[in-house]
Specification:
binds iron/sulfur cluster, 7 helices, Alpha-Beta Plaits
């Protein structure tokens, strides 16, 4: 192991190292035993991500300037990533245990799908941040701490984990969670301080209890220390100014059908706008006879009469007569199992498009 900091400058005059070259270089240096990296990036993607698993017994540290998208994506526990200045989209995408500290703002979808670790942001995060955060009980809860605010559609379909949005320096905003946040949220908790509006009706806004305050008190110290803003602790720890958002459990009576959702909420002329005219009728697929999508055709050449096809057809659609095999059309569903199980490739599935068109 080499504890020296390995420095990488990715721009040499006008020659820029590609993402692939950079990741390969990091990988090579990891194999040589380096565990500390200082990277002056030039928009390369995925720096600090999951490929560093081999050195997990040692803490890996990445200090990155000017990263591209997905810094720390799928990063594992035992990894610390410090980003100097702001970072573009997908910081900590599917974070799986790393600590990621961003000394600036994050683009859209920060912490998207995060499943573990902690992401600390000293500025704002963009649209859809925290969406699809989740909690696997085998691992610690993922956490997203943001000093300022989030963009719209944040925490969509959040299924677990904890987000803390401090609302610092947000006096002019109508909503520190943007618009339409928490749509489809089914798990986790969002602590926030400041004005919000347009939050989905599947969630409840509640006062903090003692457990919440204990969590925020200790977590806030760690967060502010990491972003080097310890001096804000007193201002941000007036817990009466905080609330939490949790999903409403057992809201079965308010569930809407897909048809109702499309009729009332689908955005006309949006990218899925065509579906708004969907008649919602589900047509059965033709399954047997001439309506089959595919037809098995038998070839005698290599057949050894093992009967494997006959015994595995789920619909008893294969008959045998004097070592001649055939498919019974009005029973066959074209599943292809006979072609898969035959050891001698005697069955061949052909398209039945002419018949069904
Ligand atoms: S395609 Fe499926 S249903 Fe038809 S003969 Fe083969 S195994 Fe049986
Ligand atoms: S599985 Fe193949 S080899 Fe065996 S009987 Fe069927 S067609 Fe012949």
């Amino acid at each position: 192991m080499n504890k020296e900091i390995y420095k990488i400058k990715t721009l040499n005059e006008n020659n820029r190292m590609s993402t692939q070259e950079l990741l390969q270089l990091i990988n090579k240096k990891l194999e040589e035993g380096y565990i500390n990296f200082d990277i002056e990036a030039c928009g390369q993607h995925n720096i600090g991500g999951s490929s560093w698993a081999r050195n997990r017994e040692e803490e890996l540290t990445f200090r990155i300037k000017n990263p591209g998208q997905r810094a720390g994506a799928m990063a594992l526990s035992g990894t610390s990533i410090y980003i100097e200045g702001s970072a573009p989209a997908d910081v900590g995408w599917l974070n799986s245990g790393a600590k990621i500290v961003v000394d600036g703002d994050c683009g859209d979808t920060a912490a998207h799908c995060a499943a573990g670790g902690k992401i600390y942001v000293s500025g704002r995060v963009g649209t859809r941040s925290g969406a699809l955060m989740k909690h696997d009980p085998k691992f610690e809860l993922p956490e997203l701490w943001v000093l300022k605010n989030t963009g719209s559609f944040s925490f969509e379909f959040m299924g677990g984990g904890i987000a803390v949005i401090c609302g610092y320096d947000c006096d002019g905003l109508n909503s520190i969670l943007g618009n339409r946040s928490c749509v489809g949220m089914v798990g986790g908790v969002i602590y926030f301080r400041g004005k919000i509006q347009g939050v989905a009706d599947c969630v409840d806004i509640q006062n903090l209890n003692d457990e919440d305050i204990a969590f925020l008190s200790s977590g806030m110290s760690d967060f502010l220390r990491e972003i080097k803003k310890d001096a804000l602790y007193n201002e941000l720890s007036v817990w009466e100014e905080w609330k939490k958002i949790v999903p409403i459990k057992n809201k079965a009576s308010n569930k809407m059908t897909v048809a109702e959702f499309r009729k009332n909420h689908w955005i006309e002329n949006g990218i899925f706008g065509d579906f708004i005219k969907d008649d919602m009728v589900v047509y059965n697929l033709p399954s047997t006879g001439n309506g089959r999508v595919r037809i098995p055709v038998w070839n005698s050449e290599n057949c050894v009469n093992c009967k494997i096809c006959l015994n595995n057809c789920p619909n008893n659609a294969i008959s045998e007569n004097d070592k001649i095999y055939s498919c019974i059309d009005d029973k066959c569903i074209g599943c292809g199992i006979c072609t898969a199980v035959c050891p001698n490739s005697c069955w061949n599935l052909i398209s039945n498009r002419k018949e069904i068109s």
